Amino acid sequence: MVTFCIIVAPLPYAIRKRLFTFLSESPIVAKIAYGLKISFIFVGVLFVGESHAAQRMFRVTAETEMAKSGGHGIQDVRTETNFAARKFYAQRNTYLTGFCLFLSLILTRTFYIILDLIHTQGEYAKLKQATSSQSRKDMASSDQSKVIAELKTKLASAEAKERDFETLKKQSSQQAAEYDRLATEFNKATGAVSDKRID
């Protein structure tokens, strides 16, 4: 019972993991478990024997009850007491060995279920950590891709503005050259002399 209470006690994950790792991997505990398995085999044999003894006792009890109800003679009190004591011992031994076998089955199954739970929790923690690091990488790469896309659009708009500015500069230099040419022609035609510093 104490072992069962220790196994199912709500311990923190780290302590439970250390405890169950020790219990499942220790050679001393393995030898003790082997000895317990052998003793449980003997208890199983006792259970079968006591079950047969209890069945015999129930048959004898049924026959005795039939004899009492039929009114065939008077029974001896000492014989009835002895019979009741043997019946009690047979039932007690059957219940004790049965409970012992049942408890061993429950302890073994509970131990392996909790051991599987610990392994599953460990795998879950590893997967969660891998997923979180992968999601951080994905978020970082998605953030980086957003920044890259944003920078590409800014670069494209800057290049377009630069092209427009270069085109505007070229047009303005062409217009200035054309204006100077027309102004020179106009001055030649009218005979006016133009001083660019004064104009």
Q: Main traits of this protein?
A:
199 residues; mainly alpha; 4 helices
What would your notes on this structure say?
With 199 residues, this protein is mainly α. 89% of the residues lie in helices and 0% in strands. The chain has four helices and no strands. Helix 2 crosses helix 4.
Q: Please, what is the average pLDDT?
A: 81
Number of strand segments? 0
Give the fraction of residues assigned to helices. Answer: over 70%
Beta strand %: under 5%
Identify low-pLDDT runs: none
Query: H/E series, N to C?
Result: HHHH
User: How many helix segments?
Assistant: 4
Q: What characterizes the major β-sheet?
A: none
Described by its quaternary structure, the protein is single chain
Estimated radius of gyration:
50 Å
Question: Given the C-alpha coordinates, what overall shape results?
Answer: rod-shaped
